[in-house]
Specification:
The complex is a heterodimer of chains A (371) and B (310).
Chain A lengths: L11 E5 L11 E7 L2 E8 L7 H6 L7 H7 L4 H16 L5 H29 L4 H21 L8 E2 L2 E2 L5 H26 L2 H7 L7 H7 L4 H5 L6 H4 L20 H25 L19 E9 L2 E9 L7 E5 L1 H6 L2 H4 L5 H10 L4 H5 L1
Antiparallel strand pairs in A: 1-2, 2-3, 4-5, 6-7, 7-8
Helix pairs in contact in A: 2-3, 3-4, 4-5, 4-11, 4-14, 5-6, 6-11
Chain B lengths: L1 H29 L15 H11 L10 H18 L17 H9 L1 H12 L3 H32 L4 H6 L6 H4 L1 H14 L11 H4 L9 H26 L10 H20 L7 H29 L1
Helix pairs in contact in B: 1-2, 1-11, 3-4, 3-5, 3-11, 5-6, 6-9, 6-13, 9-11, 9-13, 11-12
Classes of the chains: A alpha+beta (371), B mainly alpha (310).
Chain lengths: 371, 310
């Protein structure tokens, strides 16, 4: 709006972020506006860059563990899992079955917490304040359960090479079962309050459509990809841990719009509950740590890639080892980064209000994008 | 007249303080939490403390603003609101000026808030503010038309612009029974008129940060805030007069009945805010022009026909 006199321009720039209520972190999006429509846009990232990958080269394998919980703080246990999986494959460590079960249970609980937070924060983006507090009420239960066994409430560092740090007890199991019952009783409320709300449907139906081709072209993964109708979930397509033992579905959408991504996430929470239920039923006894894992891990020369399904999509760890106690190079393939790359194409010629809705539907974690 | 003015200013301030407290309590209980509890009984003095804090804050004027307009805007939003109280009939005796164009005066002066919002948005030299202002104007124009038309259908039935006459005409049955559609339309339009959720597009915080008042701080922001809540009171008071029989009631004194009805409508408007997500801007305008205005016209025509026939 503040144009130089004498220069005629049809468009103007709007700087969204790095501090803006709906970017959920220090993301900046430069918008070239034509009235209220977005003519062009460019996400600018890196404000929260902490050199996580470089840090790996300066630390031993064990010392790098706490970093992972801080890359994606919302689904930290998936990141624990992904990194431990890669190192275990590299060093040939066998994980006892009970430990694998505990990993699956805690990781799925964490996924539910992550999705619940997205649900609340997204409705906040759309201007509905109340669901946010309902979700946090539910999420508080998960966080309490995880707090008991892992010792922290957000940036977990619970998995170890060859197992987990602490065993779960009866109280943990009882807590999980109570939570499963509680959350199941809430679906109806969420449906009535949000999913069937006509304003919500108008805001999300047929908005921000990602076609399957686009999704594949940009490497979109997670609920955003499944919302477009491609049933790609690492837990099923490249099974790791003990996921093959459980019976669960991969929910997919049809149109690839925001509504589909929303429904996919809600269904995923229910599937996570099913996994937890089965895992609690089948939970074997036994050790929770592999024997003889050396304190100073020194894997042989080689390289490895391991991927897990985080709340946002495929999280991959690529490790190159030169036979030292420190990794030679670690590359983290983070889902939010790839998912963000599609945003410019998606928000072209939409309104600012739609842009906020679309951006929110990706469930971006900005520290993960910046690393 | 000076007594009346002092009375109005006192009422406006106390009402705003009470409404902000009420809003926080309503929101809190809808969201399963207690809300403010510390200052006073159940946090009753919380808003007083907040108001004192707001007055103590530094008034920041950004460098590049259009100073006269920027400074005038918060005052201009507040003055018409004071005028509105002149004609509201709280009880048969408690009315400052019983003008014979009372309802017209209310609609005329409440439209002036748009001017202030435009001034605030334009002078702030901030793109988010301009967006907020532009949206606000489009929204207010779109929603004032059905608001006036629904009020017209009541005026047709009464045959007078005088607010006391309108109340007097409801001695047998309240107009909400005869005109339920008009009441519904009025509540929707009133919510949009006062920029309340789900129609709070001009200050949609997830898109426009704070809309037209992004650059205002301290008591200048406080005046916008005060005006919003006072406007809410005024539209609810008008709804009470038009549809709910004004001060009419049993046993309790008339002024108590009037306030009960006003706060019941305000509670309804608050309930909307804490339940619904926000509409998109174009959906909002489409809704006004394609749904509300035709419905309001149909309602007016049916009313006119019914009056002619019976």
């Amino acid at each position: 709006m503040m144009l130089e006199p004498g220069i005629e321009e049809k468009t103007f720039y709007l700087n969204l972020g790095p501090q803006h209520p709906s970017t959920h972190g220090v993301l900046r999006i430069l918008l070239e506006m034509d009235g209220e429509f977005i003519a062009n846009s460019e996400p600018v990232i890196g404000y929260g860059h902490r050199a996580h990958e470089k840090m790996a080269e300066l630390r031993t394998y064990q010392q790098y563990l706490p970093n992972l919980g801080r890359v994606d703080y919302l689904h930290a246990l998936a990141y624990n899992h992904g990194y431990c999986l890669a190192v275990e494959r590299l060093a040939g460590i066998e994980v006892p079955e009970r430990a694998e079960f505990i990993r699956v249970i805690t990781s799925e609980l964490n996924r539910i917490a992550s999705h619940l937070l997205w649900f609340g924060a997204y409705l906040l983006d759309l201007g509905a304040f109340t669901p946010f507090l309902y979700c946090f009420d539910d999420r508080e239960n998960v966080v309490d359960i995880l707090d008991r066994v892992t010792g922290s409430r957000l940036t977990y560092c619970y998995f170890r090479f060859g197992g987990v740090r602490d065993d779960i007890d009866d109280e943990f199991i009882a807590g999980c079962r109570a939570f499963i019952t509680r959350l199941r009783s809430r679906w109806q409320d969420y449906d009535d309050l949000v999913t069937k709300n006509v304003i919500f449907i108008n805001r999300t139906r047929d908005v921000g459509i990602i076609t399957p081709e686009q999704a594949l072209k940009y490497g979109v993964t997670g609920p955003c990809l499944r919302g477009s109708g491609i049933p790609y979930d690492i837990r099923r397509s490249e099974p790791y841990s003990v996921y093959p033992l459980f019976d669960f579905e991969i929910p997919i959408g049809e149109r690839g719009d925001i509504m589909d991504r929303y429904v996919v996430r809600l269904c995923e929470m229910e599937q996570s509950l099913r996994i937890i239920e089965q895992a609690l039923d089948k939970l074997p006894n036994g050790p929770i740590m592999a024997e003889k894992v050396p304190k100073r891990l020194k894997p042989a020369e080689g390289e490895v890639y391991a991927a897990v399904e985080s709340g946002r999509g495929e999280f991959g760890t690529y490790i190159v080892s030169k036979g030292d106690t420190k990794p030679y190079r670690i590359k983290l393939r983070v889902p939010s980064f790839s998912n963000l790359s599609i945003i410019s194409e998606l928000i072209k010629d939409t309104l600012v209000a739609d842009m906020v809705a679309i951006l929110g539907s990706f469930d971006l974690v900005i520290p993960e994008v910046d690393r | 007249m000076i007594v009346a003015l002092i009375g109005v200013i006192a009422l406006v301030s106390v009402n705003a303080l009470f409404l902000i407290w009420m809003e926080r309590k309503v929101a809190a209980h809808i969201q399963l939490r207690p809300g403010p509890m510390e200052v006073g009984y159940h946090g009753a003095l919380q808003t007083v403390a907040d108001a004192l804090k707001l007055m103590g804050k530094e008034l920041i004027t950004p460098d590049e603003v259009d100073r006269p307009v920027y400074l005038l805007a918060p005052i201009i939003i507040f003055l018409p609101v004071l005028v509105l109280f002149l004609v509201i009939p709280f009880s048969p005796n408690l009315i400052i000026r019983d003008l014979n164009v009372g309802i017209l005066l209310i609609f005329a002066f409440s439209s002036l808030t748009v001017l202030s919002i435009l001034m605030a948005g334009w002078s702030s030299n901030n793109k988010y503010s301009v967006f907020g202002a532009i949206r606000s104007i489009a929204q207010n124009i779109a929603y004032e038309i059905p608001l006036l038309i629904t009020a017209m259908s009541i005026i047709l039935m009464v045959g007078s612009f005088k607010l006391t006459d309108i109340v007097a005409a409801q001695d047998k049955v309240w107009f909400v029974v005869i005109q339920p559609l008009a009441f519904l339309l009025y509540i929707i339009c009133a919510t949009a008129e006062t920029n309340r959720a789900p129609f709070d597009i001009p200050e949609a915080e997830s898109e426009l940060v704070a809309g037209f008042h992004t650059e205002y701080s301290g008591m200048r922001f406080g005046l916008f805030f005060l005006a919003e809540y006072t406007n809410m009171f005024v539209v609810s008071a008008v709804a009470t007069v038009l549809f709910l029989g004004g001060w009419r009631g049993w046993i309790l004194p008339p002024v108590v009945w009037f306030l009960i009805k006003v706060y019941a409508i305000i509670f309804l408007i608050m309930w909307f805010r804490w339940t619904f997500p926000r509409l998109r801007f174009d959906q909002l305008i489409t809704f006004a022009w394609k749904v509300l205005i035709p419905l309001a016209f149909v309602n007016l025509l049916v009313t006119a026909l019914a009056i002619k026939l019976f």
